[in-house]
């Protein structure tokens, strides 16, 4: 698949202190699926469906999928010194995808007044979570109630700050608590399974 000439995806890298272009995993296929009329039809008919995710996930759990790891690491210039590699290497791409960090790879400020980012990724902060006028997720704007799937829960968080973290396939795929607290009940939000890529 040839790379598209579509607008690149930019983000601000706070370590480099400059705007950078995001490398998108599977960009050619994603641009076809979301920007080409035939691709959009295929996407709606199959790619966004749960059965497709189940099949793709099952393939990424196979030993054969592990062959993709060296090329992925090279293409996206991952610093593998930050991660713990299991003895004998990863048995599948999915095992590599959720790779654990080495101790000390992400030092966290011990000051109780500091709030850490909960994950690697691209982050968007809203001083008031009730005002999400700039939040677009998978191509559509959201209110806090729509984002949480619960109007009463949204009212509990009105006036509070909100950070939305978007993880790319190249990121460390684990979340951590940004400050002390206990998790509430997990909620499943039904709907199509679009890619996390900004192309989507």
Walk me through this protein's architecture:
- This protein is α+β, with helices and mostly antiparallel strands and 200 residues long.
- It contains seven helices and six strands; from the N terminus they run ββαααααβββααβ.
- The chain has a two-stranded antiparallel sheet with strand order 1-2. A two-stranded antiparallel ribbon has the order 3-6. Strands 4-5 form a two-stranded antiparallel sheet.
- A hairpin with a 4-residue loop joins strand 1 and strand 2.
- Helix 1 (27-35) packs across helix 2.
- The longest helix has 11 residues, at 37-47.
- The radius of gyration is 19 Å and the shape is globular.
- The two termini are 17 Å apart.
- The model is unreliable at 1-5 (pLDDT under 50).
């Amino acid at each position: 698949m040839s790379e598209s000439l579509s607008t690149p995806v930019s983000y601000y890298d706070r370590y480099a202190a400059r705007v950078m272009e995001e490398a998108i995993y599977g960009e050619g296929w994603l641009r076809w699926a979301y920007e080409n009329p035939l691709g959009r039809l295929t996407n709606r008919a199959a790619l966004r469906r749960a059965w497709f995710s189940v099949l793709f996930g099952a393939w990424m759990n196979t030993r054969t999928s592990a062959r993709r790891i060296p090329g992925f690491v090279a293409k996206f210039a991952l610093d593998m010194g930050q991660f713990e590699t299991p003895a004998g290497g990863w048995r599948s791409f999915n095992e590599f995808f959720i790779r654990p960090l080495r101790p000390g790879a992400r030092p966290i400020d011990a000051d109780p007044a500091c709030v850490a980012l909960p994950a690697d990724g691209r982050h968007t902060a809203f001083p008031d979570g009730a005002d999400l006028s700039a939040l677009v997720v998978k191509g559509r704007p959201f209110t806090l109630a729509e984002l949480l799937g619960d109007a009463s829960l949204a009212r509990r968080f009105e006036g509070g700050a909100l950070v939305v973290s978007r993880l790319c396939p190249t990121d460390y795929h684990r979340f951590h608590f940004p400050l002390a607290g206990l998790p509430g009940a997990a909620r499943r939000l039904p709907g199509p399974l679009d890619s996390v890529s900004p192309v989507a």
